[in-house]
Automatic annotation (TrEMBL):
Family: Belongs to the glycosyl hydrolase 67 family.
Record's keyword terms, sorted: Carbohydrate metabolism, Glycosidase, Hydrolase, Polysaccharide degradation, Xylan degradation
Gene3D superfamilies documented for this protein: Alpha-glucuronidase, C-terminal domain, Chitobiase/beta-hexosaminidase domain 2-like, Glycosidases
Protein name: Xylan alpha-1,2-glucuronidase
Lineage of the species this protein comes from: Bacteria, Bacillati, Bacillota, Bacilli, Bacillales
Catalytic reaction(s) noted: Hydrolysis of (1->2)-alpha-D-(4-O-methyl)glucuronosyl links in the main chain of hardwood xylans
Glycosyl hydrolase family 67 C-terminal domain ranges (all copies): 462-686
Group of enzyme by EC: hydrolase
EC number assigned by the record: 3.2.1.131
């Protein structure tokens, strides 16, 4: 392995495989034999290698791998089926309950051997990572009896990497994939990324930005050999490779004069393009498409709709089992700010919902979790679940574009959990987002999760070391949305730093994670109104940064009040996109939750919240408290000195220091702005400029 790292720089992330600390020493020591048949399969080989590498770290012993039964106790891994070494250990009840990517793990009571059985090599790999996670967190392996299937079929990562090495909304250095318009020479690092992803359950990746420009379009043609190399790396970790494509490739690189989806020549071009890709990469996943969005080309140019566009590509991919993932982030980005009738929040639903039933079976719509754009607080997109005959996946953003850009700590799993637990009420109570995206509500052939990655070539992958927990958490949640946010954070803490749950540093870190989203929200845009950031790069406070722009993200603050009236009665009518019960919940000032109040209503500063505070006092209080709590995170972290590696300590300390100072800037900008607009003083007489 040629990648060089220092233990404290975070490169190994949650795959440290250190020997268990206090109390755990010696627990797993006897497991130094692996039995694995079928090692000519690349994924099984990966599983055996990963297990060997992990066990070596954990036991401190040399690990023997054999293809035939070895002395007990050993760890026996393999797929079910004739001649398999694992079959005898599982009842048919267990083995038949294991689905495509699932696995069963059992400890044989007689011999103490641990057996991991699965239907597919991918399942074995996930089972191996599960076992290593148990050992890495100090769990008992004496009586394992585990059966797991992933809740979601598609568990995807979207890279927003450009071929010049930059990363759109990247906050962790340059791309690990590309430099100077080629794939980087450092394929080991890409492989290390693949293993990080696979260890959390990720099974699909798009390797390029959704904004596809000329050079990137050539991935389908002259860069195909590079893409093929990357596909091989990800294949060995059971991760399917997808490409973001330029909708207008026929014009950009194909020499045609149109990208009209109904034009026979255009269709033929795509059929040939698909055939070439599949010839090089027979298990290629398919295309991700951002069309008619933020100045990207799309079918609207030709008077066609998104079903026409998506189906054209779907038809080309269909013979090979490929899929088209079509993004619903479509809105008018040239809006007239003075026009209060247009509402960007409505756009995805308005564009796509009427097309339900028109998409081919191998099209999936990818829908951002909220109707705007990954703000710290948004309601759930009403499009999720609203197209029963259409495959849908939810899109999250692990990259912290609007949540501190990996300079502030903001553990996003609690936010994602809240979204997944939201009851859309589309088929009565209990129609949660979680059940919509796992496919169980409408029974669509495809469903799942996608998310924008937060990694780059910074030595710790994510810029902020603690931002690793978001990548880890996303993967874990995509596999099992039933896990809790603190369970996931706890796993990350123990796997990364080795602290046991009852140790003080564990508790400090857990508290930091679990409070971080709330803290970030409290000193930034209030009550669901969103934005208030500097234009373009989106970092730091600027209350009116987008107020008179064409982007459709406004707060409408004046001397009387603030907020966006999205009611059906007097506003943009956005509330009517929800099922009746939720529509009523948001429509009425009496029932609208405080944290989304300004997303749905325009109210006077003196409006009294359910909390009993006025809107203006709430703004002041949360901003003073939020900044204070950000300082609290820094002083908590100081207790970690000597508990974690010095390099990791000072890195996080520096980021938390920056966050604390920056939270003051946020506090003062927001408080001052609203004090000047409203003229209403803070009840507690604190300093407002
Ligand atoms: C956001 C982001 C863009 C990105 C876009 C998208 O608007 O700021 O950089 O391209 O989302 O999701 O397509």
């Amino acid at each position: 392995h040629t990648v060089h790292y220092h233990p404290g720089d975070g490169y190994l992330a949650w795959l440290q495989y250190r020997r268990p600390a206090a109390g755990g020493t010696g627990r797993y020591q006897e497991y130094n034999r692996i039995v694995a048949a079928g090692l000519d399969d690349t994924v099984l080989r990966t599983a055996a290698d990963e297990l060997a590498q992990g066990l070596k770290g954990i036991t401190g012993r040399e690990i023997l791998v054999s293809e035939t039964m070895a002395a007990s106790p050993s760890i026996i891994i393999g797929t079910f089926g004739t001649g398999s070494l694992v079959d005898g250990f599982f009842s048919t009840e267990v083995s038949s309950a294991v689905k495509a990517e699932g696995y069963a793990i059992q400890t044989d009571s007689q011999t103490g051997s641990i057996v991991i059985g699965a239907l597919t090599p991918a399942g074995v790999l996930y089972g191996v990572f599960h076992l290593l996670r148990i050992m890495g967190t100090g769990g008992s392996v004496r009586q394992l009896n585990i059966l797991e299937n992933p809740a979601n079929q598609l568990r995807m990562i979207n890279q927003w990497d450009n071929m010049d090495g930059s990363v759109e909304r990247g906050y962790a250095g340059q791309s690990v994939f590309y430099e100077n318009n080629r794939v980087t020479g450092n394929l080991e690092q890409i492989q290390d990324y693949a293993r990080l992803l696979a260890s959390t359950g990720i099974n699909a990746i798009t390797i390029n930005n959704v904004n596809v420009h000329q050079t990137e379009s050539r991935r389908l043609t002259d860069f195909l050999p590079d893409v093929t190399r990357l596909a091989a790396i990800f294949r060995s970790y059971a991760i399917k490779l997808f490409l973001s494509i330029n909708y207008a490739s026929t014009m950009e690189i194909g020499g045609l004069e149109t990208a009209d989806p109904l034009d026979p020549e255009v269709r033929e071009w795509w059929r040939r393009a698909a055939s070439a890709v599949y010839e090089a990469i027979p298990d290629f996943g398919g295309f991700l498409v951002k069309a008619d969005s933020e100045n990207r080309p799309g079918p609207f140019t030709y008077g066609r709709d998104h079903a026409d566009g998506a189906n054209m590509l779907a038809e080309a991919l269909q013979p090979y089992g490929g899929i088209v993932i079509w993004r619903c982030f479509v809105y008018n980005c040239k809006q007239d700010w003075s026009d209060r009738g247009t509402d960007r929040a409505r756009a995805a639903y308005d564009h796509f919902q009427p097309l339900d039933g028109r998409f081919m079976d191998n099209v999936i719509l990818q829908i951002k979790n909220g109707p705007i754009d990954f703000q710290v607080r948004e309601p759930v997109s009403p499009l999720l679940g609203a197209m029963p005959q259409t495959n849908q996946v939810i899109e999250f953003q692990i990259a912290q574009e609007y949540t501190g850009q990996q300079r502030h700590v903001c553990y996003l799993v609690p936010q994602w959990k809240e979204i997944l637990d939201f009851d859309t009420q589309l088929q009565g109570e209990g129609t949660t987002v979680r059940r919509i995206v796992d496919g169980s509500v409408h029974g669509n052939p495809y469903s799942g999760f996608a998310a924008v990655s937060n990694i780059g070539n910074d030595s710790n992958w994510t810029g902020h070391l603690l931002a690793q927990a978001n990548l880890y958490g996303y993967g874990r949640l995509s596999w099992n949305p039933g896990l809790s946010a603190d369970e996931i954070a706890g796993e990350w803490i123990t796997l990364t730093f080795g602290f046991a749950t009852d140790q003080e540093p564990f508790q400090i870190l857990l508290r930091t994670f679990m409070e971080s989203w709330e803290i970030y929200e409290s000193y930034t845009a209030p009550l669901g109104v969103g934005f208030m950031v500097n234009p373009d790069h989106h970092y730091g406070p600027n209350v009116d940064g987008y107020e008179y722009s064409m982007w459709g993200t406004y707060h409408f603050a004046d001397c009387h009040g603030i907020g966006v009236d999205r009611t059906a009665a007097t506003g943009t009518g956005y509330t009517a996109q929800y099922a009746q019960a939720n529509m009523e919940l948001y429509e009425s000032l009496d029932s609208c939750p405080d944290d989304l109040l300004l997303f749905f209503h325009h109210v006077p500063y003196t409006h009294v919240l359910h909390s009993g505070k006025t809107v203006i006092q709430h703004i002041y209080d949360t901003h003073f408290e939020g900044a204070e709590r950000a300082y609290g995170l820094l002083s908590d972290w100081k207790l970690m000195q000597g508990q974690v590696d010095e390099q990791a300590y000072s890195h996080v300390e520096a980021r938390l220091r920056e966050q604390a100072a920056h939270s003051n800037e946020w506090r003062d900008r927001i408080n001052t702005y609203f004090f000047r607009k409203s003229g209403i003083p803070d009840q507690h007489g604190r300093t407002i400029y």
